[in-house]
């Protein structure tokens, strides 16, 4: 049973100076890079997901801008696949499912951004497609959100979504735990 890595939306706009800077994205990018190194060393399947804004009024991940470019921390190499998407769910209207099936991938390791949006949507969709999912939580990032006139801190948003995913959809672990298991 093959294990594949999905790196979701680790793009310049989410890093310092980008149009939608996330809390601790630099650290999450470094952890995602560590995770990617493990997969490269083992020659395990890797898919980079790149969001390209298609909706009217979008303010980030705009086509043909530096912000849409995959970040240096996880820059694709060799034959690593890059799939572009236009929705939070990386499977929606993309070739992701077909590519994973073609490579006989049954287990998925997922990381990237934003925890409360594309990581959540992609993990739930992967589960619905019968993949055995693991989310590497410290290789994910998000931002503060507003609800009911209150600011919900990014750490609370991240924790809530990781707890929800971990309750039914995925194993939620750290890069350290994953690296130990991969040895």
Keywords:
183 residues, alpha/beta, Rossmann fold, 6-stranded parallel β-sheet, 5 helices, 8 strands
Structural overview:
The chain is built from 5 helices and 8 strands. By secondary structure, the chain is an alpha/beta fold. The protein has one domain (2-182): 3-Layer(aba) Sandwich (Rossmann fold). The strands form 2 sheets. Strands 3-2-1-4-5-8 form a 6-stranded parallel β-sheet. It has a two-stranded antiparallel ribbon with strand order 6-7. Helix 3 (115-128) runs parallel beside helix 4. The protein starts with a strand and ends with a helix.
Put the structure in a nutshell.
With about 180 residues, the chain is α/β, with parallel strands linked by helices.
Question: What structural category characterises the helix and strand content?
Answer: alpha/beta
Q: Could you tell me the strand content as a percent range?
A: 25-35%
* Full CATH superfamily name: Isochorismatase-like
What proportion of the residues is helical, as a percent range? 25-40%
CATH top level? Alpha Beta
Low-confidence stretches: none
Mean pLDDT: 97
CATH topology descriptor: Rossmann fold
The helix/strand order is EHEEHEHEEEHEH
Query: How many structural domains does the protein architecture include?
Result: 1
Draw up the topology in text.
Elements: E1 2-8, H1 25-42, E2 46-51, E3 81-85, H2 96-102, E4 105-113, H3 115-128, E5 132-141, E6 145-147, E7 150-152, H4 154-168, E8 171-173, H5 175-182
Parallel strand pairs: 1-2, 1-4, 2-3, 4-5, 5-8
Antiparallel strand pairs: 6-7
Helix pairs in contact: 1-5, 3-4
């Amino acid at each position: 049973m093959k294990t594949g890595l999905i790196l979701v939306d680790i793009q310049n706009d989410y890093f310092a100076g980008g149009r939608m800077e996330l809390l601790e994205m630099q650290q999450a990018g470094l952890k995602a890079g560590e995770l990617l190194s493990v997969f490269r060393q083992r020659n395990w399947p890797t898919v980079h997901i790149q969001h390209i804004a298609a909706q009217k009024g979008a303010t980030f991940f705009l086509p043909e801008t530096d912000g849409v470019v995959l970040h240096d921390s996880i820059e694709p190499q060799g034959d690593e696949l890059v799939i572009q998407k236009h929705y939070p769910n990386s499977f929606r209207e993309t070739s992701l499912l077909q590519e994973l099936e073609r490579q006989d991938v049954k287990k998925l390791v997922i990381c990237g951004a934003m925890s409360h949006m594309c990581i959540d949507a992609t993990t739930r969709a992967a589960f619905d497609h019968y993949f055995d999912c693991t989310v590497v939580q410290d290789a994910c990032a998000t931002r503060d959100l507003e609800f009911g006139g209150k600011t919900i801190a990014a750490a609370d948003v991240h924790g809530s979504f990781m707890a929800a995913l971990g309750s039914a959809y995925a194993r939620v672990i750290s890069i350290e735990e994953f690296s130990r298991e991969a040895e």
